[in-house]
Amino acid sequence: MSVLRNLVESIRNGGIEVIDLTAPLSSETPILRLPEPFGNTVPFELREISRYDDRGPAWYWNDIVTGEHTGTHFDAPVHWVTGKDGEDVSQVPVDRLIAPAVVLDLAAEAAVDPDFLLEIAHVKAWEEANGPLPEGGWLLYRTGWDARSHDQERFLNANETGPHTPGVSVECARWLAEETAIAGLGVETVGTDAGAAHGFDPAFPCHSFLLGAGKYGLTQLRNLDRLPVTGAVVVAPPLPIAGGSGSPLRVLALVER
Amino acid sequence: MSVLRNLVESIRNGGIEVIDLTAPLSSETPILRLPEPFGNTVPFELREISRYDDRGPAWYWNDIVTGEHTGTHFDAPVHWVTGKDGEDVSQVPVDRLIAPAVVLDLAAEAAVDPDFLLEIAHVKAWEEANGPLPEGGWLLYRTGWDARSHDQERFLNANETGPHTPGVSVECARWLAEETAIAGLGVETVGTDAGAAHGFDPAFPCHSFLLGAGKYGLTQLRNLDRLPVTGAVVVAPPLPIAGGSGSPLRVLALVER
Ligand SMILES: Nc1ccccc1C(=O)C(=O)O
Ligand SMILES: Nc1ccccc1C(=O)C(=O)O
Hints:
2 copies of one chain form a homodimer. By secondary structure, the first copy, chain A, is α/β, with parallel strands linked by helices. Chain A has helices at 3-13, 107-112, 120-130, 152-156, 170-179, 205-212; strands at 16-20, 45-53, 56-67, 73-75, 98-105, 117-118, 138-142, 158-159, 162-163, 167-168, 184-187, 216-218, 232-235, 246-248, 252-256.
């Protein structure tokens, strides 16, 4: 049978499961909060145009106000100054939007240390057990943080010293960007970088190194616990916003049963 | 080889091509214009938050103002009063978002008659030649209208009697909704209905019948001329807007070479 008929047939008969890795979008969707004097994004908002009423007797529809980097979203290279000559979100080649994914699960470590950082050694140990990171694919970094996403305060986990959420060390971010063949990094947290990464050198190293290397970010993923360690395929197609730095998007995973 | 490894391998080696069916999003994106007293959607707009400047020295990002039904977008059942107890855009089952698609090409007819309407007989003749419409899949209706999408005036094609763009007859819309197994209808025009459909009985029959039957709409598609008549697979994953009536989305087609 042809590859595509096989795909459609397998989705239909349950041989392939489609798993939604996306958080729903609503006014409750947690958003990043940067300190003064930096600009911040607006909360997600629907503005009703009509709802089977005078403004439209047979139809219901809304306008949307959101940020490019809100909810489950895609970071394109131009999001960061290191990638400013790179692709905007509409320029990412479409054949990169369907790619293999692997899951690195450090949820146990992040549960006891909200400032937990992924190190090169964790990734190398994972590769020892599971083989190389996927060329042109996603490294999905599980921290268990998706369980907090219903509660903006616990999700951002900020105190007087700033936000405390797990991320990636400076060395590991540089290594993932420059020494591996991944297309990008996917995380469960509000952004790809740790909550404390504003104070790293460089600040926000995942953004700085990965986007600077033409790689991508995917954030606020959920259901990573339902994926196999290797073998999933992730569909991550951002909106083609002309000149855009990123986009909210639907992320789906295909998993063979 | 496993289905998913086969898929990834084929995308990599060109055996499967990924074709973008999506129009780019910008302030030039054409939008629907309904007459008074109906509410209308806003033009797509980016609002810059920072661009490697005081407001964010290392980063560039924007807020977005758009409509749910802007550019290439997905119509969910609740968009129409006939589907008001049906799925909102976040409730569409994810395994319906990757589905087979067929192309019905009436571009020659629409080129000489901007009010051209698809009739049941056209679809039956197509089925005679190509087999049944795909169960749970998309009927993609090619009219050549995507060639006009760069020019809002030619795309909407309105005069003193209103907009004149191709669509579907009342009888055919009812038949597609009630007598076929398709998941939905995809078009190249600003909406699934003809420009003149405000004056049909019922008004906007594609919206009324298809959404009322729990089916979906996809609009402002492009590159349908690059798809085979049968055999493509379409990935059409809307944003999971809680309670939303529809969503701009990225639509990708997979085509075997
Ligand atoms: N860390 C940041 C700093 C500035 C702007 C955005 C971010 C993100 O995390 C993002 O991409 O969501
Ligand atoms: N025909 C309409 C009437 C009212 C509201 C929206 C529409 C659309 O076409 C749409 O879904 O884009």
